[in-house]
Design a protein that fits this description.
Strands 1-2 form a two-stranded antiparallel sheet. α2 runs antiparallel to α3. It is mainly alpha-helical. The two termini are 27 Å apart. The chain has one domain. The protein contains seven helices and two strands.
């Protein structure tokens, strides 16, 4: 059956991100204040992107855990599911490569080995995801001096924002009799997420 997490990502999150794109385009003109205004929108955009992606990953992890325990004794099911989800890093930290690998690793996955071996460009996507985490922290804490990747800059690179998210083109379904698997989304979904230079 279709993933509810993916439905959220392709619909609710995509709409919110598209609205932020529209807000950025609406700030036009050549006045002296434009650069500062667009900088604020850029920073807000990146934090919004990170938060929506974190919710997607967290919900996807919960779905995967629920699927894994669906075949065991109903009395034991909540206990086992809690053991797979309680204290996960995505509940308190950024959706960076380390946290994703640790949380999905609790489900028995060799997460990044599988992701990077499935498509060559996922190696670069993993690196971009790490950069998004650095930028998110720099913006949230207004500290652009202590993190190497953003040192000396307050202008988040909007042209690469959606490239920071490595899984936008991936759809997830839960087969009735097997473990979670992934496949490509329909073309409209890919096209929507490719806007903004994905």
């Amino acid at each position: 059956m279709p993933s509810l997490s993916l439905k959220y990502w392709n619909e609710t999150a995509a709409i919110a991100l598209d609205r932020m794109e529209s807000a950025h385009r609406a700030v036009g003109g050549t006045g002296r204040g434009r650069r500062y205004a667009t900088q604020q929108i850029n920073q807000s955009y990146l934090v919004l992107l990170s938060s929506h992606f974190q919710q997607f990953c967290r919900s996807l992890h919960s779905e995967a855990a629920a699927h894994l325990v669906s075949a065991i004794d109903p009395l034991l099911r909540p206990i086992v599911q809690d053991s797979l989800t309680v204290g996960r890093k995505l509940d308190q930290g950024n959706p960076n490569p380390s946290n994703l690998g640790a949380d999905f690793g609790r489900l028995g996955m060799s997460f990044w080995d599988d992701v990077t071996s499935s498509r060559k460009r996922n190696v670069a996507r993993k690196n971009n995801l790490a950069k998004m985490g650095h930028w998110r922290n720099a913006i949230a804490h207004q500290d652009f001096t202590s993190v190497t990747h953003v040192r000396g800059s307050v202008a988040a690179p909007r042209s690469r924002f959606r490239k920071f998210v490595p899984f936008a083109p991936i759809a997830v379904t839960w087969p009735e009799t097997s473990t979670p698997s992934s496949s490509r989304t329909s073309k409209p979904s890919r096209d929507r997420m490719q806007r903004g230079n994905l």
